[in-house]
């Protein structure tokens, strides 16, 4: 897995952490993290899909660690962070599955269109 891509995952997962208040309640912290994390899912999915298929599991693990670090940076408790990251990762995996299925359908269509007669 490329070092630059790992940095990109980390950056996307933490991109809006500047200015996060340390006096938020647990619910506010979780909501703030979830808002940013959910907004980052499309870009993180794009980054992961750029990896060769054999490296995507490692990229997903890296994304999960980065999301967890971001949740903790937002001030979420360990339990809240784990729960929130689990929800984010479910959404990320679902998005990846949908995108991969779409890519396969597109490839099959292109193959049929380019086949002779």
Low-pLDDT stretches = 16-24
* Average pLDDT number: 85
What is the number of domains?
Answer: 1
- How many beta strands in the DSSP annotation? 0
The major β-sheet equals: none
- Helix percentage range: over 70%
Please identify the structural class as seen in this structure. mainly alpha
How much is the radius of gyration in Å? Answer: 17 Å
Tally the helices: what do you get? 4
Shape: elongated
How do the helices and strands follow one another from N- to C-terminus? HHHH
Beta-strand content bin? under 5%
Terminus-to-terminus distance: 41 Å
In short:
The chain is mainly alpha-helical and 117 residues long. Helices cover 78% and strands 0% of the residues. The relative contact order is 0.16.
Describe the structure.
The protein has one domain. With 117 residues, it is mainly alpha-helical. The radius of gyration is 17 Å and the shape is elongated. Helix 1 runs antiparallel to helix 2, helix 1 runs parallel beside helix 3 and helix 2 packs antiparallel against helix 3. The longest helix has 37 residues. It contains 4 helices and no strands.
Write the layout of secondary structure elements.
Layout (H helix, E strand, L loop, with lengths): L2 H12 L11 H24 L6 H18 L4 H37 L3
Question: Which features characterize this protein?
Answer:
single chain, 117 residues, mainly alpha
């Amino acid at each position: 897995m490329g070092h630059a891509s790992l940095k990109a995952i980390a950056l996307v997962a933490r991109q809006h952490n500047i200015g996060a208040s340390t006096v938020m309640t647990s619910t506010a912290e979780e909501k703030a993290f979830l808002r940013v994390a959910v907004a980052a899912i499309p870009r993180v999915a794009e980054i992961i899909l750029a990896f060769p298929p054999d490296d995507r599991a490692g990229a997903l693990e890296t994304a999960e660690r980065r999301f967890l670090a971001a949740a903790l940076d937002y001030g979420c408790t360990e339990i809240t962070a784990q729960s929130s990251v689990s929800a984010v990762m479910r959404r990320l995996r679902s998005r990846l599955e949908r995108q991969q299925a779409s890519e396969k359908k597109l490839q099959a269509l292109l193959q049929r269109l380019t086949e002779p007669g």
